[in-house]
Specification:
Blueprint (H helix, E strand, L loop, with lengths): L1 H23 L8 E5 L7 E4 L1 H4 L5 E7 L3 E8 H8 L4 E7 L4 E7 L16 E6 L2 E5 L5 E6 L9 E7 L5 H31 L28 H25 L20 H21 L2 H4 L5 H16 L14 E6 L7 E7 L9 E7 L7 E7 L33 H11 L9 E2 L3 H16 L3 E9 L5 E4 L5 E15 L6 E2 L2 H7 L3 E2 L3 E13 L8 E15 L1
Parallel strand pairs: 2-5, 15-22
Antiparallel strand pairs: 1-10, 2-9, 3-8, 3-10, 4-7, 4-9, 5-6, 11-12, 12-13, 13-14, 16-18, 17-18, 18-21, 19-20, 21-22
Helix pairs in contact: 1-4
Length: about 550
């Protein structure tokens, strides 16, 4: 019995070790796959689509050579094709049967531009002569190749796949096989030792009598006639038929319904690394522009309300160095990240960063990309209210759906918020819109109180307040409950006119700098810009609209 167990263990160990060795040798995948393409084209761009990158498993490395400059970028395939547009380009087309690809040239009339430092790229490399970059097929990954966007693409494209071979399973098989072999050897030695100990005197035993011989008849030699032959035929036939039916069931399963894909689901437009890179550049440009009070530097990455409010602050600081600058743009840490889930343009993204220091408040940075060939620009920089809580939103990996500025599915359409909220600022609880808003916030208390005090203190002048939509570009993103986060630009217009002739209206310190005088006998009109962040619930919810953040700045002062 011990010999039988040892033999089984020896056989099993041999099988395990041979299987483990085979996995590392004859069954192991190739060390790498490679594809070399030499496109003979003067096009400025080359696209390596996702299906070409997916031809083989493993880590992907793309190398280009044969030109004075070499540029490689990775990104979503649809984004790369949108960037290339109608410009002349080369696209690699996979030939699945031959596991290769061919270069196909596409003519186009749209002019090309430099692809360097586009916000669409997940990673990029720019070098002289030769460049290499790792790529991935995840999230529709593809590769764009260029020189400088104007000159022809490099003449040689090499793609190398390096499969990741996990040696752990083969290692386990080999070591388990060695363990079984060791047990078999030990068991064999023990058995031999016991046999020698238990061995008795060697005596010749007599041969036992031979048993009688019996004649056996094979089933194949059964008689061809009679009931027995019929029963045998039926048994054999029915057994064969049963096996045939079973094998048919095993090889021809019923088709099952495949899961359907929701065509409405859009991919997220920005990954976390892209958002961080964009914010780093935005912060650097804002820091440089703030130090130089230079609007031209700021315009590279700022637009809309953020550009208007910050530019006016530069004018004030140029005329009086003691004027405080606006809150700096911190690039990190990112406390909140919400890119849009879309494949079209314009695209938007929201992010909250927190400046170092206990006195600083977190800041919502709202950005927009107008087209595939333009970069994101900051439209709003909104300081969050103390204790403000942003409602639940989709994860940054999924992204949020942009909401139309005139949406009727919200309690108030985003582009109507300045009018509704402005009426509440003017009339307080007497406003018809007062019940729509949660008025427990510092911005409402300070602005409404300042308006009341100013109206009371003006004995020889009349003041009129108007709150308007400052820019039709209202950026809204859907929340998880069907509401929206809305960033909107509101203009506060204060018009003061003297009641009597030969009277003058005096202005404040900052207004003097913009007006160039201490007041006006005809009256003045001052305009302040408010970058506001609201949470607007769905139209059928009882919740109120909440002001989450606000940044106000003086925009202009003119004499009437």
């Amino acid at each position: 019995m011990r010999f039988l167990v040892a033999a089984v263990l020896f056989a099993l160990s041999t099988i395990l070790m041979l299987t483990g060795l085979a996995q590392r040798t004859i069954l192991a995948p190739p060390s790498q796959y490679s594809l070399s393409i030499t496109p003979e084209s003067g096009a400025p761009y080359a696209i390596v689509p996702n299906d070409v990158l997916s031809m083989h498993p493993g880590a992907i490395k793309v190398t280009v050579d044969g030109g004075p400059q070499a540029f490689i970028a990775t990104g979503r395939e649809s984004d790369i094709r949108a960037f290339v547009g109608e410009s002349p380009h080369v696209a690699l087309v996979a030939v699945a049967k031959e596991e290769t690809a061919v270069a196909k040239t596409f003519a186009g009339k749209e002019p090309s531009i430099s692809p360097k430092n586009s916000d669409l790229w997940r990673t990029q490399v720019d070098a002289a002569l030769t460049a290499s970059l790792k790529a991935t097929t995840a999230d529709e990954g593809a590769v764009l190749i260029a020189s400088n966007g104007l000159a022809p693409i490099p003449s040689a494209i090499d793609i190398v796949w390096t499969p990741t071979f996990d040696t752990l399973p083969s290692t386990i098989l080999i070591w388990v096989g060695l363990g079984f072999l060791l047990v078999a050897i030990v068991l064999t030695i023990i058995t031999f030792r016991k046999m020698r100990i238990d061995r008795g005197p060697r005596r010749k035993t007599p041969k036992p009598p031979r048993p009688p011989r019996y004649r056996y008849r094979s089933v194949l030699q059964s008689p061809e006639r009679g009931r027995r032959s019929a029963r045998g035929f039926v048994a054999i036939t029915s057994g064969a038929l049963t096996l045939t039916l079973l094998s048919g069931c095993a090889t021809s399963p019923e088709p099952s319904a495949s899961p359907t894909v929701d065509d409405q689901v859009q991919p997220v437009s920005l990954q976390a690394a892209q958002v961080q890179r964009i914010l780093n550049e935005v912060s650097a440009i804002a820091r440089e522009a703030d130090a130089r009070n230079d609007r031209r530097v700021l315009a590279e990455r700022f637009d809309g309300a953020a550009l208007a409010v910050r530019s006016t602050n530069y004018v004030l600081r140029t005329r009086n160095a003691r004027i405080a600058s606006l809150q700096a743009i911190a690039a990190e840490p990112i406390k909140f990240n919400l890119p849009a889930a879309t494949s079209s343009w314009p695209r938007v993204a929201m992010a909250v960063t927190d400046e170092e220091g206990d006195t600083a408040l977190p800041q919502m940075i709202v950005m927009q990309q107008d087209s595939a060939r333009s970069n994101y620009k900051v439209w709003f920089t909104i300081r969050l209210m103390p204790g403000a809580e942003i409602p639940a939103v989709p994860s940054s990996e999924l992204g949020a759906i942009p909401v139309d500025a005139a949406s009727l599915f919200l309690k108030v359409a985003p582009n109507k918020l300045p009018i509704a909220f402005g009426d509440v600022l003017n009339l307080g609880q007497a406003s018809l819109s007062a019940q729509l808003f949660d008025l427990d916030n510092e911005f409402y208390r300070q602005v409404s109180q300042a308006q009341k005090e100013q109206a009371t203190s003006l004995n020889n002048a009349n003041i009129a307040y108007a709150h308007l939509l400052g820019n039709p570009n209202v950026i809204s993103m859907a929340t998880s409950d069907g509401g929206a986060l809305v960033a909107v630009y509101q203009l506060d217009r204060y018009t003061i006119k003297p009641k009597r002739a030969n009277s003058a209206v005096a202005v404040g310190a900052q207004e003097k700098l913009l007006l160039g005088a201490t007041g006006s006998t005809r009256g003045v009109r001052s305009i302040y810009g408010d970058m506001l962040l609201f949470y607007v619930p769905p139209v059928d919810e009882s919740a109120k609209i909440v002001l989450l953040g606000a940044t106000q700045g003086l925009i202009s002062v003119v004499s009437l």
